[in-house]
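Contributing new records

If you add data, match the layout below exactly. Sequence lines come first and carry their own label; structure lines follow with theirs. Keep one chain per record. Anything else will be rejected by the validation script.
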Amino acid sequence: MLNLLRPQIARVTEPTGRALARTGITPNTITVVGTLGVAAGSLGFFTRGSLFWGTVIITISVLLDLLDGAVARVTGTSGAWGAFLDSTLDRVADALIFGSLVWWLSGAGHNRIAAGVALFCLVAGAVVSYAKARAEGLGMTCNVGIAERGERLLLVLVPTGLSGLGVPYVLDVGLWVLAVLSAITVGQRVAEVRRQIPARD
């Protein structure tokens, strides 16, 4: 759903991408730095229960993910390696975010049910991404789903940050909503691929 906002987002990222390109920084460097920022926010803050500041650091780092592509387009350096690195490190970032939440919730957070839901969200998110990659590897398209990566990050980071500010139950609710929407998205992608197969065969 956030794909609908891409034109508006591009109005901000493209000028920023041009400014960064003039510094000589490469898109891949931005990708790696963004992932390291997510690691710092997740492992350094989420695991200790510092949810608000962890969310701030992770959000800033995730926004870098919007800029690596902008810099690549401006400099004409878009390519297979950059796309592969970006997608792979996205999965690493997702694992860091949810894995750190599972760690804290199952330990000092004293909420094993929420930890289990967060673990489900991690697995479901990986399946959502894999379904698309596998479909494209088979020559099909799979650009459907109510909760793609942008939506999933929004649904986990906003409640986590609010929880860090002391808002009760918001993290539990956010994780349950995300779990349901992630499961629906998996079903949507499986159905989309199944719909295309008769036409191909």
